[in-house]
Design a protein that fits this description.
20% of the residues lie in helices and 28% in strands. The protein is of the alpha+beta class and 526 residues long. The protein folds into two domains: 222 residues, Immunoglobulin-like (Sandwich); 215 residues, Glycosidases (TIM Barrel), CATH 3.20.20.80. The protein has a nine-stranded antiparallel β-sheet with strand order 5-6-7-8-9-10-16-15-12, with no helix packed on it. An eight-stranded antiparallel β-sheet has the order 1-2-3-4-17-14-13-11. Helix 6 packs across helix 8.
Length: 526
């Protein structure tokens, strides 16, 4: 069974530690692997995931808190961890790896040692627990990689601050550490001798200031939420990759056609337009596997509908493509047009499926492609289950196993706001009915949207002798999204430097366990 730190604390450590605290009269009480600070109680939880992978979490002791769920794919391994504590210091052993922790009156320290080397260390002032700022050092490393998505070099630059806050990064600049569409809070620290990694499992907005000097490191600051860090021992880059994937999951097995050539533009406007493109490829003896439809195929930018004038019989188009072994991808974004009579909107209102405004009463409203829009609250499982039904073939006109999904604008994008995304104080509803500010889970919104879309496609295979694997493409993402969808780097520009930058951008994603990724080769904007 797992070692009970609560038991260790109460029965063995606490009596020894309280005496010097009481004698000194200080306001800070230090409790071995639990740390309690007067006015802001905190406890430390260390879990062993096997092969030297350790998870360190700092959590409040006396109040409820938001914790990232649905990213980690497995439980800790039982019986592999041991702990010894002396005074204010603890040593937690897991095979060949050791986590050493200590606490001063103001600062929590931890070091992670494997293979006879200190791979990483962290420290955090406890006074910053509500808005954590953690200093990481990597004594064995010479370069840092990861923390996508940024349009910069593969190797992270020293003295640069990388923002991580999913947003609609319209016409983004390259060689700029600005936040883009997606986030994976993972760092690979590498040298020719040894490699290690950390995953900071927090879904709020982040800033990572890379620091160069005698020891390479970074200052990792988050807007809110827990300090919850996985440490990966390596010692090679490939081993770090395997260890990372063992925590957040492997890339989904893609359907075979999705590895071929995709033909997409904004926009094919009718069935005849699509068939002319299809026949043009045949006429020029050019192979392709999949045709894409952007938002103009819908009825007034209402997803899960078709323009009846230009696409009067969707299944005829689908079947014409399928007869040649080709597929169709249609777009389904998470914003919903606020139009009376639109079935998705009516069901969302009736079922209480929208993200709410700041006071938690009415549905949050903003502007997106359809104009006045509201956003599906994918944080709630009941809502994810409901939304998944729109991908069932009996609900989506033209829906077959030859029709797949493109999920765009799922940061989510809100046009009129400065950050081009939803307000931080918009409210999500948990499965238990509690309201939660968007700022806590913002970077995970896209992951939850993809979980619902994937679920709907899988459910459409009910009754078949085997599951039909879907192809889903997403613009926004978080750790774990690779289990459900491929991603692309969004609305880049038709410039040579954007084309050049796409290579390190995709390599950074691949290093961070998102290997099914791509970019618009010719660019999107002129």
């Amino acid at each position: 069974m797992l070692l009970s730190f609560q038991y260790l604390l109460r029965k063995l450590i606490l009596p020894l530690l309280l005496l010097p605290t009481l004698l000194s009269g200080t306001a800070v009480r230090v409790r071995a692997v639990e740390v309690v600070k007067l006015g802001s109680d905190v406890f430390l939880d260390v879990s062993d995931y096997g092969s030297g992978v350790l998870r360190l979490s700092l959590k409040p002791l006396t109040k409820s808190f938001y914790e990232v769920k649905d990213v980690v794919v497995r439980e800790p391994e039982a019986g592999n961890i041991g702990s010894t504590c002396e005074g204010v210091s603890c040593t937690i052993n897991s095979g060949q790896c050791v986590m050493k922790t200590s606490v001063t009156e103001e600062v929590f320290h931890a070091s992670y040692e494997c293979h006879g080397s200190v791979l990483s260390s962290m420290e955090m002032p406890l006074s910053l627990f509500e808005e954590p700022s953690v200093a990481f050092k990597f004594p064995s490393a010479r370069r840092l990689y990861g923390i996508p998505e940024h349009a910069t070099d593969l190797s992270l630059h020293g003295n640069a601050t990388y923002a991580m806050y999913n947003n609609d990064a319209f016409q983004y600049a390259i060689n700029d550490p600005q936040a883009l569409y997606g986030t994976i809070p993972f760092l690979l620290a590498h040298s020719s001798k040894i490699s290690t990694g950390v995953l900071f499992l927090n879904s709020a907005g982040m800033r990572v200031e890379v620091q160069e000097g005698e020891l390479i490191g970074c200052q990792w600051t988050v807007e809110c939420g827990l300090v919850d860090v996985f440490f990966f021992p390596g010692p090679t880059p490939s081993m770090v990759q395997k260890q990372h994937a063992s925590i957040t999951g492997n890339t989904m097995l893609p359907p075979y056609f999705s590895l071929g050539y995709h033909q997409c533009r904004w926009n094919y406007r009718s069935t005849n337009d699509c068939l002319n493109v299809d026949q043009g490829f045949d006429r020029h003896n050019l192979p392709y596997d999949c045709l894409w439809l952007d938002i103009e195929h819908t009825d007034g930018k209402k997803y899960f509908t078709w323009d009846k004038h230009n696409f009067p019989e969707p299944k005829l188009l689908v079947n014409a493509l399928a007869s040649k072994g080709r597929k169709l991808v249609t777009i389904k974004d998470p914003h919903v047009k606020r139009e009376s009579g639109y079935f998705v909107h009516e069901e969302a209102l009736k079922g209480n499926h929208y993200v709410k405004n700041a006071d938690g009463t009415d549905a949050y409203e903003g502007k997106c492609w359809p104009g006045a829009s509201s956003w599906i609250d994918f944080y709630n499982k009941r809502t994810r289950d409901w939304y998944a039904t729109f991908f069932h073939h009996d609900r989506y006109e033209g829906g077959t196993h030859d029709v797949h999904s493109w999920v765009d604008m799922n940061e989510p994008s809100v046009f009129e706001l400065k950050d081009k995304t939803i307000h931080r104080d918009a409210k999500h509803t948990s499965d238990t009915g509690d309201l939660l500010d968007n700022k806590y889970l913002h970077n995970m919104y896209s992951l939850y949207s993809l979980m619902s879309v994937y679920q709907g496609h899988i459910e459409s295979s009910k009754g078949l002798d085997h599951v039909k694997r879907p192809f889903i493409l997403t613009r926004s993402f978080f750790s774990g999204a690779q289990r459900y969808a491929a991603m692309w780097t969004g609305d880049n520009m038709a410039k040579w430097d954007h084309l050049q930058n796409s290579i390190p951008e995709m390599l950074s994603l691949s290093v961070s366990n998102y290997v099914f990724c791509g970019a618009d080769i010719g660019g999107f904007f002129l």
